[in-house]
Design brief:
This protein has 5 helices and no strands. The protein is mainly α and about 90 residues long.
Length: about 90
């Protein structure tokens, strides 16, 4: 039950307001990401990367690097790697 809230918090950390995303799409995306075992941070990254209007702000890059340092995202996970590629970021 807390997973959707944690995804929203991760979106906010990347300066993306969940309120500006289409509600059904966001809900469905959260369900799919949870079902394939993504962390809330990975789910937020995937959701943000698919939003054509979402740019990669400084806050986005900082959040992603912090999550990697904390072990909250796995850049080798295919969905995460694809999201990072779409937004033009590489993390080690």
């Amino acid at each position: 039950m807390l997973y959707p809230l944690h995804v929203d918090m991760a979106l906010f950390a990347m300066n993306v307001s969940p309120a500006r995303l289409e509600e059904d799409y966001l809900s469905y995306s959260k369900q799919v990401c949870k079902s394939i075992g993504l962390t809330p941070q990975e789910a937020a990254l995937v959701i943000m990367a698919k939003d054509r209007d979402a740019g990669c702000s400084d806050g986005t890059e900082e959040a992603i690097k912090a999550w990697q340092d904390q072990g909250s995202i796995d850049p080798s996970e295919p969905a995460v790697a694809g999201a990072l590629s779409r937004i033009g970021l590489t993390v080690n």
